[in-house]
User: What shape does this take?
Amino acid sequence: MPKPIIAIVGRPNVGKSTLFNRMARSHAAIVEDIPGVTRDRNYRDAEWGGKGFIVVDTGGFYPEPPEDIFLHIKEQAIFAIKEADIIIHLLDGKEGLTSSDVELARLLRVSGKKVLWVVNKIDVPKHEERVHDFYPIGTDELWPLSAATGYGYDDFMDRLTSILPPYLEEKIDYPKIAVVGRQNVGKSTLINTLLGKKRMIVSPVPGTTRDSIDSICTYYGRRYLLIDTAGLRRKGRIGYSIERFSMVRAIRSIERCDVALIVMDASEGIVEQDQRIAGIVEGYGKGAVFLLNKWDLIERPEEEYKRLDNELNRKMWFMQYAPVLTVSAVEKKRITKVFPIIDEVIRERKKRIPTAELNRFFSESLSRMPLAMYKGKAVKLYYITQIKIEPPVFVVFTNYPSVLKDAHIRHIEKGLREKFLFKGTPIRIYVRAREREK
Assistant: This one.
């Protein structure tokens, strides 16, 4: 079973984003680490009582409210119904029940999905009497809480996680490969070509693939699970909420995979949605390969490759470790090169560098990295060790961890890649104080 999705829906200004931030245990949900890539992310991994899930905030998609605000709310509800396993209908305990609340509740109720009705802005026990005003909505179970202060939050989360569908890690021995990208970049055609048969409906109309489809592929006796997902739609053509929920579909596939094939339309160049998808792959720590598809449409291949390579370096600066391959799924150009690259990325993700070798490199290349003084004392880098694989994770020990900034971490990563490569996989670097300094 994939990780459950919980969507928060409701009228504007009822506190959806505040509840989302509390559930995701982050107050920086709108500003992400990679500017212009995963900014305004409305989905987060969350956990309560040892149970994991994805929480989605449906608020704030439009820069300006549409004329009929309920059409906007209804659009969000429809996609929540389609994509979510559990829906939280958030109500405003200060304003009371409105006709929009009642109509939205009706839509949710007839969907057959699990719904929890939550009355927000109940800050203290004496305010709980306001909950009685909401029983006409048609439910026997209303949960009072304050997303801002946390009043009633623990009881509500216990109830929420008690009805979560089971989530089990997939037990598959062969690599899981997610094929992700915008709509109409040729993902399904690519998979059909890799499989050597027409596995999926392929159409020039964007949005043909509605949900994830898994296929088993064999290449020279080696098996792979290929995961195809619905494409992400472009901004401007549809409402923000539709775009954001299509992003959630991609997340489910990326979360399951070992390596993501990020398919882009070479004839259109690198666009914002390509960056967003790549940002999700990097954020989940998955291996990545950039596929520039529809290369058969390129008239001057050498010139265009140089231009696209420069564009990739500029727009995908956070993922320059990912290999790039030009392909044509229609004409089957360079398709056979995909699997050897996947195998190479998987080996790199499993690479473990012995501590002795790491520290020889560390003493030769990184220990002399210039660092600012801390309260008049010299900052020292003692040693580095690898603690995990898939993706590789390293810990650097120093006497003053707070002195090492993002620029220092990037410098260490650059050194690691120059020495040990780690092609196609992100690496994580953490800084810790040595035991005697703690």
Q: What stands out?
A: The first strand starts at residue 5 and ends at 9.
